[in-house]
Amino acid sequence: MAISPELRPLRVNMVELLRQPGAERSSSASVDPDVLGCIVAEGQASLRGPIEVAIHAVSGTDEVEVDCVIEAAWIGDCRRCLAPVSGVETIRVVEHFRPAVASRDAGQRDDADVIAVEGDQIDLVPTVRETVMIELPMAPLCSPDCAGICPICGTDRNSAPCGCSVEIRDERWAALDSLRLDE
Ligand SMILES: [Zn+2]
Ligand SMILES: [Zn+2]
């Protein structure tokens, strides 16, 4: 099957590893999010720059364990004040792969934790793509206590208090005050 040359580093030769149980292989890949096919949801941060993947594969007797550490740099707008926000999400994912033929020979045992591989090569593209899309921050904040933009006058309340009274607490205080009056 044709594969973009840029995605080739996300392949691991499973057959070669399975020939020597205990064998380990480390590699790395740097891939463009568009080439990888990452689609971000509405309101989710956007990916910026290449996605870095550190791959470590270990061969067992009949399966290969692949440990990936993915670094995805992202950029977005604070959901409260719209200031630009950026960060790097580091995600670790461990998957197990086995030849599809071996899975069938094992008496149709449907092992949800092991991915059956057709052919010789493990393709980490779906694993990396899905992990990045799931873990990318939704609706980021510039800081956990961002004051946001005033809904009345539009001032960025992080830089200057505007004096508008948008105190939702008022009603609750009023209820407390009336309780105290009853006493
Ligand atoms: Zn903010
Ligand atoms: Zn205001």
Characterization of the model:
With 183 residues, the protein is of the alpha+beta class. The chain folds into 2 domains: 5-143, no CATH class; 147-183, no CATH class. Helices cover 22% and strands 32% of the residues. It has 5 helices and 8 strands; from the N terminus they run E-H-E-H-E-E-E-E-H-E-E-H-H. The model has no long low-confidence stretch (mean pLDDT 87). Bound molecules: zinc ion (ZN) (2 copies). Residues 150, 152-153, 155, 162, 164 line the site of one zinc ion (ZN). One zinc ion is lined by residues 78, 80-81, 83, 141-142, 146.
Ligand names: zinc ion
Percent strand equals 25-35%
Q: Domains counted in the coordinates: how many?
A: 2
Query: What sequence of helices (H) and strands (E) makes up the elements?
Result: EHEHEEEEHEEHH
Uncertain runs: none
Number of helices: 5
* Estimated structural class: alpha+beta
Distance between the termini: 80 Å
